[in-house]
Design a protein that fits this description.
Strand content: 5-15%
Distance between the termini: 58 Å
Radius of gyration: 34 Å
Strand order of the largest sheet: 6-9-10-3-11-12
Structural class: alpha/beta
Number of helices: 20
Number of strands: 12
């Protein structure tokens, strides 16, 4: 669905989208597709509406003994059938395109926005909510779009039937034009409870997704403390809650389906009874009675389609409300209105909060213990400085630099950085061409033995979070990945805490040689890093 063969149009969302405005904005992005669905929907419904009239005329021709008229009406019925088949194919294509547009565009918008949110997403919402939007809610948005063509066609067919009935029998036409809307209105009271129950089911589904994600991410810890059974019980209870809420939704939908048949069925019975009385009185012919019966039976289709549209739109609005909630989230770090460029070459770092100054083009070790992580986050602008304080990067305030440029020039490598599932070579190779050779980076991180132990070397497929390797090996691969990027400023947080002293000694020397002329900051209390450092920071004091 999201392959390169489909080009999603640009969707201009309002600054603060509401569910209705969101759905309208997505629809406006593909006016041609919407028009195609409406036209084919009308063309598909009209033959079904006209067919009872044609059959009625054919029955009348039989009663009159006019065989030539009978053949003409039979031929016209065949033409209507072929026309409906062709337009039905077009309607199916357009309706499915509408579904893809609604669901796919929603998934793309949410994925792009959550990517821009970055690490701030975790604090703003739950994993289950994001999973529910991108796996379930997007389908409801697509369903609300998919039925638009058939709904418009049903309206057109209903109008045609009403006009045809009024032209032949004002009484029967009035019953149809009044009775069918009343049947639709009679179904209305069933929709509010259905929407309420669907909202509750959606919330329960979000919670069970969040619980499942938490269990999977902490499975190793759960096994270590023997907590599998307890969390299994919690997940089972949450799943049963989703099941029960789903049963409530199904119960409401069953009542709705029954009403879709019962209420228009009563209108059909009334039209048939009145038509039979009029036929006995000679007001209408037998052929017209047959036509009226077929038309009244067809009225079930517009009612069912209208109900489906209302139900789908109700679910789509519930889903769109969740989508708008995600799209309303804003990253913690604001982009500057008028960004300033960073100077070329090695960059100096100054943190006014701690008073630390990092000299450009040198390897500096910062030995501050618990304070180190907060300082590193400020220097790389993963957190803003307090009011009245600031971080200067190359003499430019960090909050005045475009985040994209700052992320490219200043890289903060943390031991908690994640590994995604994929080929190791792809994960080690930097996106921009200016990075160093990955094998040079692996040598500097003393990770060549890890590559040699893998069956396919750097072409080995590494699973999520790099579980195929040990903690120490993963730390060395993470360091190699950071060194391969070769940024102007590289901040390393305890990059060798999980390796032995001999390995650490080789890494410190090789990393210093590889980073010659670049600004490198190592937050570590290791004496081996201090031995190779150009400067060492203890508190606010700098030792050369």
């Amino acid at each position: 669905m999201l392959s390169a063969t489909y080009r999603f149009p640009d969707i201009r969302l309002p600054e603060r989208p509401t569910p209705v405005r969101y759905l309208l904005a997505v629809l406006r992005a593909r006016p041609g597709l919407v028009l195609a669905a409406i036209v084919t929907g009308a063309g598909w419904s009209l033959p079904s509406a006209l067919l009872p009239l044609v059959i009625g005329r054919g029955v009348g021709a039989i009663a009159d003994g006019d065989s030539s008229a009978l053949w003409r009406w039979a031929l016209l019925a065949g033409v209507l059938g072929v026309t409906q088949a062709l337009l039905g194919t077009g309607l199916h294509f357009a309706s499915y395109g509408m579904w893809i547009h609604g669901a796919g565009s929603t998934q793309r918008l949410v994925t792009d926005h959550t990517t821009r949110l970055g690490a701030s997403l975790r604090d703003a919402t739950t994993t289950g909510n994001v999973v529910a939007v991108t796996s379930s809610d997007m389908n409801w948005v697509g369903n609300a779009f998919e039925v638009i063509g058939r709904t418009f066609g049903s309206i057109v067919a209903f109008v045609v039937i009403g006009i045809a009935m009024l032209g032949t029998s004002p009484v029967l036409g009035t019953v149809a034009l009044v009775g069918v809307p009343l049947a639709v209105l009679g179904i209305g009271p069933l929709l509010a409870p259905l929407q309420k129950r669907k909202t509750a089911q959606r919330e329960n589904l979000s919670e069970v997704n969040a619980l499942g994600a938490d269990i999977v991410s902490g499975l190793r810890i759960l096994r270590g403390v023997g907590g599998e059974r307890r969390f299994l019980a919690r997940f089972r209870d949450a799943s049963q809650l989703v099941r029960r809420s789903g049963v409530e939704v199904g119960r409401s939908e069953s009542w709705l389906a029954g009403a879709e048949v019962l209420l228009p069925g009563l209108v059909t019975v009334a039209i048939t009874w009145l038509g039979a009385r009029l036929a006995l009185d000679g007001t209408i012919s037998v052929g017209e009675l047959v036509a009226f019966y077929g038309l009244s039976a067809f009225l079930v289709v517009p009612v069912a389609t209208a109900t489906e549209q209302v139900s789908s739109l109700s679910s789509g609005l519930v889903a769109a409300r969740k989508v708008c909630g995600l799209l309303a989230l804003r990253p913690k770090l604001a982009e500057p209105v008028s960004p300033l460029p960073l100077p070329d070459g090695p960059l100096e770092l100054v943190d006014t909060t701690s008073g630390i100054r990092i000299a450009p083009g040198k390897l500096t070790v910062v030995d501050l213990g618990a304070e180190a992580e907060a300082i590193a986050a400020r220097m790389s602008r993963f957190a803003d400085a307090d009011e009245g304080e600031q971080v200067l990067v190359g003499g430019v305030p960090a909050d005045r630099v475009a985040l994209a440029e700052l992320r490219r020039r200043v890289v903060y490598a943390h031991n908690q950085d994640l590994w995604f599932s994929g080929v190791l070579r792809d994960q080690l190779t930097p996106e921009h061409p200016r990075g160093v050779d990955i094998f040079a980076a692996l040598h500097a991180a003393d990770a060549e033995d890890i590559i040699e132990a893998l069956p396919r070397g750097v072409d080995e497929l590494i699973g999520e979070r790099g579980r195929e390797v040990s903690g120490g090996q993963r730390q060395r691969l993470s360091l190699a990945r950071a060194l391969a990027i070769d940024p102007d400023v590289l901040l390393l947080d305890e990059p060798t805490s999980a390796v032995d002293a001999h390995t650490e000694a080789r890494i410190t020397q090789r990393a210093k040689e590889l980073r010659t002329g670049r600004t490198t900051v190592v937050f570590s209390q290791s004496p081996l890093w201090r031995n190779v450092a150009d400067e060492v920071v203890h508190g606010k004091a700098v030792t050369v």
